[in-house]
Amino acid sequence: MRILLVEDDAGIAEGLKANLQQRGHAVDWCSTIASAWTALTTEGFDAVLLDLGLPDGDGTSVLQRLRNAPAPTGLAKTLPDPATPVIILTARDGVHDRIEGLDLGADDYLSKPFDAQELQARLRALVRRAAGRANPLIHYRDMVLDPAQHQVRLQGALVEMSPRAYAILLILLQAHGRVLSRQQLEEKLYSFDASIESNAVEVHIHHLRKKLGADYIQTMRGVGYFMPQDAGA
């Protein structure tokens, strides 16, 4: 999952970023409204973690502007995506503040201080809802993926894999059979400041095929990779 973290406190931001990266997420950090909006109009994000008290204004202005952005038409992809899930992370813990944030379009609201594991659980719930899933486990053929535990089981046996390979597998499963190019996978896997080896995605795909079977992840030559939609995912 690629996450935009909007937080002006460097200590909080670094701690959150490290925790999220340990769970395999790509995290881009912005400390102002202006830089957050630039990020949202430049890259696609799976979720936004939004502080409200920012140096150049109130974070709710980002939320309102995002929700009022034009919705995509047809198959066209537009940035920013007004449907991007947003979790407000703020020291404002009053009932009125929570109601206002949710009514302005936030998908969830967490008051500081909060537990990092709770934040992870709320992120997983957002992804489930966005995918239209109720089951916390993802089933595909004879494989079961558990996002909460970061585990993959094939015919009941645990499959060991690197965090990056696991992230690619999850992205392809959530794509519902769509073909994703290497660039699209890289955009989901890496933040702005990450260094990317030219064949990194191909290497991880190769390792996944060795562990799961060659037919689990297929290639559309010259286009990208996909998992056939011939089983419930």
Automatic annotation (TrEMBL):
Query: What Pfam families does the record point to?
Result: Response_reg (PF00072), Trans_reg_C (PF00486)
Q: What is its main location?
A: cytoplasm
Q: What keywords sit in the KW lines?
A: Cytoplasm, DNA-binding, Phosphoprotein, Transcription, Transcription regulation, Two-component regulatory system
Checking CDD domains in the record gives: REC_OmpR_PmrA-like, trans_reg_C
Localisation: Cytoplasm
Which SMART domains does the entry mention? REC (SM00448), Trans_reg_C (SM00862)
Identify the residues that the record assigns to the Response regulatory domain, covering every copy. Answer: 2-127
Q: Does the keyword Nucleotide-binding apply?
A: no
Q: Where is the OmpR/PhoB-type domain?
A: 135-229
- InterPro entries, per database record: CheY-like_superfamily, OmpR/PhoB-type_DNA-bd, Sig_transdc_resp-reg_receiver, WalR-like, WH-like_DNA-bd_sf
- DNA bind region: 135-229
4-aspartylphosphate is found on D51
According to UniProt, the name of this protein is: Two-component system OmpR family response regulator/two-component system response regulator QseB
